[in-house]
User: What shape does this take?
Amino acid sequence: SSGARDEEALIAEWEIAKTTVTKEIENVQALKEKKAAKDEIMAAVGKMKVAKENVARLEKLLFPADKLDIDRDAFDNLLLRRFFVCPSFSIYGGAKGFYDFGPPGCAIKNNLLAFWRQFFVLEENMLEIDTATVTPERVLQASGHVKKFNDLTVKDLTTGAYHRADHLLEDFVGELLKAPGVTPEKAQEYRTVIKLADDYTAEQLGVVMKKYSVVSPDGNPISDPFPANLMLETSVGRGDGKSYLRPETAQGIFVNFGRLLEFNGNKLPFAAATIGLAYRNEIAPRAGLLRVREFTLAEIEHFVFPDDKSHPKFDSVRDVEVNLLSAERQDRVVPSPVVMKIEDALKNSIIQNETVGYFIARVQLFMEAIGIKKEGLMFRQHRENEMAHYAQDCWDAEILTSYGWIEAMGIADRACFDLTKHAKGAGARMSVFRSFSEPREVEEVQMTVQKSAIGKTFKKEAKPLLVHLTSLDQEQIVKLQENLASGSTDIVLGDATFTVTGDMVKFKNVKKKVNGENIIPSVVEPSFGIGRILYCLLEHSFYAREDARRTVVALSPVIAPVKCSVLPLQQNANFGPVVQKVSALLTSSGISNKVDDVGQSIGKRYARTDEIGIPFGITVDFDTLKENEEGKDATVTLRDRDSTKQIRIPISELTSTILSIINSQSSWEDATQRFPAHTTED
Amino acid sequence: SSGARDEEALIAEWEIAKTTVTKEIENVQALKEKKAAKDEIMAAVGKMKVAKENVARLEKLLFPADKLDIDRDAFDNLLLRRFFVCPSFSIYGGAKGFYDFGPPGCAIKNNLLAFWRQFFVLEENMLEIDTATVTPERVLQASGHVKKFNDLTVKDLTTGAYHRADHLLEDFVGELLKAPGVTPEKAQEYRTVIKLADDYTAEQLGVVMKKYSVVSPDGNPISDPFPANLMLETSVGRGDGKSYLRPETAQGIFVNFGRLLEFNGNKLPFAAATIGLAYRNEIAPRAGLLRVREFTLAEIEHFVFPDDKSHPKFDSVRDVEVNLLSAERQDRVVPSPVVMKIEDALKNSIIQNETVGYFIARVQLFMEAIGIKKEGLMFRQHRENEMAHYAQDCWDAEILTSYGWIEAMGIADRACFDLTKHAKGAGARMSVFRSFSEPREVEEVQMTVQKSAIGKTFKKEAKPLLVHLTSLDQEQIVKLQENLASGSTDIVLGDATFTVTGDMVKFKNVKKKVNGENIIPSVVEPSFGIGRILYCLLEHSFYAREDARRTVVALSPVIAPVKCSVLPLQQNANFGPVVQKVSALLTSSGISNKVDDVGQSIGKRYARTDEIGIPFGITVDFDTLKENEEGKDATVTLRDRDSTKQIRIPISELTSTILSIINSQSSWEDATQRFPAHTTED
Assistant: This one.
């Protein structure tokens, strides 16, 4: 495509530009060494600067933005000041990695979850369940979490503080990258290390950290990296119930697979969903709301036959455009994502199957609907080395924030890993019976146990062996036949070893009709970090009006904590009854609203409602009171947060107008056509 | 009142009837002893039986029902079979005290919480927040939970098993009560012990258990009762963060009181609310869903000035009738509740203040709205000895179930206990400034520190004493003045003791104007056990049709997990498109629905939807297909779960008809007037 050709040309230009920079740097150094004239050096420095600017310009074109440009101090200040969130237990000095949601934050979270449920669960008739957070150790042993849910950690050998090894490496090398005089080649090397930091094994990480002489943030020597389990432990009952706070909600679905399958009439495919708390004992929480120890997850497990990962509703998302960063592109010099249609990504085998593709498209639509900016969202495919061995295809939805691109949710084709683990761990049936279109004839090895031969050899001790031999399944029988090919084989049962010889069992090949087979389903798992999505959404919604102190959180009506403010123009007892009437009218129509009559100017109160994201402001003014007294259909002013424009509207038309905008049946523009503008100095 | 007179007359009659029973029992024994004629004994036994029946009849009139009469086996079976709930991790043998909600249970829980939020939070503009479940130890030390959140426990000295002491006593004495030949007097004594079981101190409980020679359920000797803390413990970080899983959600509100007050414009009264998980490490969980270790609470903290507990919306609930069992009535021979209007309960000082009364009435309305039966709900006031020392007035909403009357929520006036505890524990301000109507003149003691006298005595060691003396508040100054009345006093600071004499400080009485005072608010706390309410609601909704095997869960549309089923009359590919069209139509109107096309007779599928509480069933039949083919406005049948009646209704009128019934704007009866009846053999 011409897009790819353009990119190649740009990359070539960038390579040349980088060489030019190196040359100009060398030139300046040479001039300085030979103590050339000041003018001459200045001219060379000028040329070097131009060359560097050219590289920067080209990199801006080639690389996606790596940070959202917002005033983070103003943003953090707003979140705390308006009580969107606050550190938990702050009157007690706080608890690191725990956050509380205040009234606006809590309402936004509730709206986000309600919309998620509407968009995913109800729309597709998923089976939503709600399961325990406290999980017995044996469940998480079977799932692999007790052994493998670790972060590589280093210890500061002087202070004893713990640090996440990959983060420490990223920060340390990040500083090297910022140092003056770094050559483009060195910069490239540092960037690669940062990119790979969370993929390294403990050993690799140790080698790399030694190479760069990484020290702790306090400048002290550090230990070798070692794995630290991230689960919070507890004990249920009186000493006998070692348990963990679940690190994810998904296990609650897997352990209930049998009941869910039955609830679904024993049919595949189907999806289960769950929303709930999960916990991770992060080694050193940082980045505020983005890395916390207690958080809400919304997870879907979509079960399919391993040989049929088509999705019945794929047609409905065929044309959805998504911003994809494939594994292959991440290994390029320029690892930037590409916008393409979902169906094209499938055709080109960038996405592995329809179900994964379907969910990528649905997540794209969901993110757009809640207000994530299109250009600030991409789907990044896991590279081979960051995927678990069993996973078939994994994509993270990454959102651009002031902290960089943040993983806000992931979609993983986990094959039959989880169900197989629990089938083994619990000895439970985790399969679906699938009928063949017609019965099939299969060949089997039939084994007959020769009791007399066994009795003769083992006498009174024969019983366990007899029980064992009669319980073997087809696979085990074939194995035994193989082992006996050499004459005899040892079978260990409890403390006893039985040497079994060829005369003790007889084999015969038989033909058998079977109607179907038991299959352990594969699962595709879209997993949403609700707190992270919420945080990213707030950053995407935040901006300052011309006057930088007037900040706004421009949340969409579906997510906004409160839909309307109701304001008396002045603090005056006469306004009270009408304000209450309007508020009650809105409430009875299901439009959440907040009366703000705390004596400040109307402009200041508008600013306050802008800051907590309320999309509409209704003001009861003197005209309202006058019309009301005269027995007319009184009017109020209705203000749109985003344009700050106002219209004058009869109270009788208020709720229908607002509801129709909230439900996307009409727009604010339509309303400005129907009702006269109202102008004030806001 | 005549009601009270009737009751007194009944009680008198009951007392006489009980004496008669005792007399008749003695008579029978006397006859047996003197070996009277068989006929004579039989006649006396007959009279004894009649007397006993008379007592039973009177007790039925005097005492409220003590158990809901449902087929619990059938009910439990239904809950599991239809996956309303199941024991958590059951494929691993389960985890005692933990339950998962399957699809119908989860949907009911979500609907219940959404309705709760609508009814309490939105209706009254409460400040809802969402706070951490993992709570640092120091927070729960301050709140008193580390010391006092205990259950009295006994240990089986043979098996080592633990039992809740009060439950063991109740069960044990309950068995004594059931034994044949128990006299009415003895029965009365046993009933009193059972009633008081959970009020006894450890010592009292020990004495009572010895008196009745209580043994463990396995018949073994038991230890003395001792307190066992009920919080689940965990550790955050690497070894330094001893924490607990919160035993209630309320502390999350208290520790955020300052921010909430500010969010509310520093005004009282206001209410905050929170919904979330709480945990109790129950000693021996029993009674299934009613006593679990992990559960959802919905709690409200309504903050008021201690001297003004009026409620602005009390007028709206004045006439609400509630079933009240006051503390006073519980001490009567006949401890039955009385129906009265909330305003009368306040006038008669049965309820202590308007805010408590307001919430009792609102809870009554809430419970009725979700479907709790009026006769199965009462509010029981805490008796003096079961209330915490700080509490002013406490009421439990108790619901009648097959396990007896169950506390499903409580309303407690906790005075300023919690905020005072945290003010002290965290050294934080937990008060509201209230202006006086006009400034007041107050007298104060002013203290001047005589530096020269102190310097002369303590020389270089004087500094800490000087710092201490200049930091004293009014209360401490007055105290020091008192202590110095006898000439001198010792002040200990760190390791040093300073003997302070009268010449070191001078006191003067001064007058001062103050504009207001700082007041720590009182709090009224309605606290809802969501799982318990849900369980009680399911019991109240459960019944069997004439055919006992056809059980129904008659949930109201607002709570029902799914509002409509959509059923093809037969399993036939022709029905598919119309069924999907109807389902999509319902979904787009926000009516949740479930297509059931798993090949069984329509009657069996209706039975299945009855069992999961779906109020309406839509069937696409051959007439629908025919009308559809002919291009007519096709009709379907609509079935009402409770009456099992059906109407024939055009698809075009379906959503508006169903929505209007769901939103209580019209009734099923109205629909039967508008559309023709449809009859089949269901």
Q: What stands out?
A: The radius of gyration of chain B is 33 Å. The longest helix of chain B spans residues 2-33. The CA atoms of residues 318 and 342 of chain B lie 6 Å apart. Chain B touches chain A through 76 residues (CB under 8 Å).
